[in-house]
Give the backbone structure.
Amino acid sequence: MPPNPSHPRIATMKTSDAAVAIARIRDEVLARRRFLITSHARPDGDSIGSQLAMAYALRLLGKDVRVVNRDPAPPHYLMFPGVSQIEIADSVSGEFDALFVMECSDLKRTQVAGLERYFAVNIDHHAGNTMFGAINWFDVSAAACGEMVFDLIMSLGVGLTREIATHIYLTILTDTGSFHHSHITARTFDICRRTAEAGVDPAAMARNVFDSNSFGKLKLIGALLDRMELADNGRLAVLQLDDDMLQQAGCTHHDTEGLINLPLTAREIKAVVFFKLALPDEIRVSLRSKGSVDIRQVAQAFDGGGHQNAAGFTVHGPFQQLRQTIIDRVVAAIASTPGN
Ligand code: 5GP
Ligand code: MN
């Protein structure tokens, strides 16, 4: 689709200079009125929190805002403000003065059609961002996209309301894997401190996000770990899930979030591969690692992406063959990490 002439593409800014990017985005926000906000399909805590923190801030400035996602939020996020009002659609065609795309290295990650025509502000913390926006602000050092959104909101001069603070904290709590992953810095805690001052209760947030399992999910955890395989002398855990296992536990795919982290709690495990066999020839693969084991490059080799310690991709084809190829790649990533 050709760009809408009423939203001409202006000089694309490729910058990781936060101050320059923030000033530029702030000017565009103040000059525009109707905003569309989106993020990647199968939203997670960082995508939901980044979008809604921005939505609440823009509304405080008197802007019209719609948040549109391809997939519904996982049920345990529904208790957070505004989550139930996110619109679910696979295409958008309304009139908007600007589009915010949170947490997407590529516009295709939204799986929402029709976005190319809008003036896009691309805010992301993944390496390998494709710079698809009219303004592109990426910062791979951010522990969550929400850290960047926090800085932007502060520059807009709106207060840190409880709703905004809740969503910013949600992004950090979830994207750091509950303060486990790399990229956590003093700045991360500084932002968390500010959100706590604004009324966020970290214990309640953790209970809502992590202690909201159904009994079905506990059964699923049992089945999954029971079938877990170890490779590479116990340094790699391989998890595999199919529809039968979900059905027997009375679960949906939403219940699979976070399960990949369980094997990482074993001291010897350096990395985890999680195969989700959803469709007959489609395999969704999630990867996690500890420390400097870089599994992002494995995901990239299969046209996916992510971060050093958390990445993913989707493959199509005969499973057994792909399974071994993927495992071999992760084993090689562990072997090539100094100290392993
Ligand atoms: P998850 O395993 O939780 O689905 O994803 C972990 C991380 O990898 C997230 O940061 C996510 O953005 C990234 N990721 C997952 N799947 C894909 C994919 O298909 N493409 C890209 N570019 N990144 C992905
Ligand atoms: Mn993120």
Summary: Residues 215-335 form a domain with the Diaminopimelate Epimerase; Chain A, domain 1 fold (CATH 3.10.310.30).
